[in-house]
Amino acid sequence: MSSATDGEADFRARIQQHWEASECGDVDAEHAIYAGDAILDYPQSGECFRGRSSIQAQRGGHPAERHFTVRRILGAGEVWVSECVITYDGVPTYSLSVMEITDGLVTHETQYFADPFLAPPGRAALAEPIPAGEQ
Q1: Spatial separation of the C-alpha atoms in residues 4 and 105, rounded to whole Å
Q2: Structural domains in the chain?
Q3: Phi-psi region of 24 (alpha: psi -120 to 50; beta: other; left: phi over 0)
Q4: How far is 96 from 81, CA to CA, in rounded Å?
Q5: How far apart are CA 132 and CA 121, in angstroms?
Q6: Mean pLDDT, the chain, integer
Q7: pLDDT tens for residues 91-101?
Q8: C-alpha span between 113 and 33 (Å, rounded)
């Protein structure tokens, strides 16, 4: 295994640990992945949070009961993507997190959120359902 591959496996594990810490409410472990001057963007709300402390503070004040399920983590080198389902007070929201990495830390993350919707009946003959455990 090459050192680049070893480094990618290590960073993939760090991202997984980030989401696990998010799930269990360990705010210090959750935010250890970010550089001190990291930026977090939420395009849907038009918000930009600058600095690890601001990122951590805005998440710490969230009033909903949240749960995080990672569907998959993809990436290499400087760009990593996490596809997650974040459940707020029992209601699922699909999330895509794009993390840009410098010197082993997230320097810029953009998170996109989408609510589930019913498939139109006209597509039923063309599609098959995603298995329940993969949704």
Answers
A1: 16
A2: 3-115 (3.10.450.50)
A3: alpha
A4: 7
A5: 19
A6: 90
A7: 999 999 999 99
A8: 21
Q: What is the 3-state secondary structure (H, E, C) of the chain?
A: CCHHHHHHHHHHHHHHHHHHHHHHCCHHHHHCCEEEEEEEEECCCCEEEECHHHHHHHHHCCCCCEEEEEEEEEEECCEEEEEEEEEECCEEEEEEEEEEEECCEEEEEEEEEECCCCCCHHHCCCCCCCCHHHC
Confidence of residue 2 (pLDDT cuts 50, 70, 90): very low
The residue behind tokens 């009961």 is 65
Q: What is the pLDDT of residues 26-73, one digit of tens each?
A: 999 999 999 999 999 999 999 999 999 999 998 876 777 889 999 999
Return the number of other C-beta atoms located less than 10 Å from residue 38's C-beta.
23
Q: Please tell me the distance from the alpha carbon of residue 75 to that of residue 8, in angstroms, as a whole number.
A: 8
Nearest-angstrom CA–CA distance, 98 and 79:
7
Cα–Cα distance, 76 to 54 (Å, whole number): 27
**Integer Cα distance of 132 and 114 in angstroms:** 18
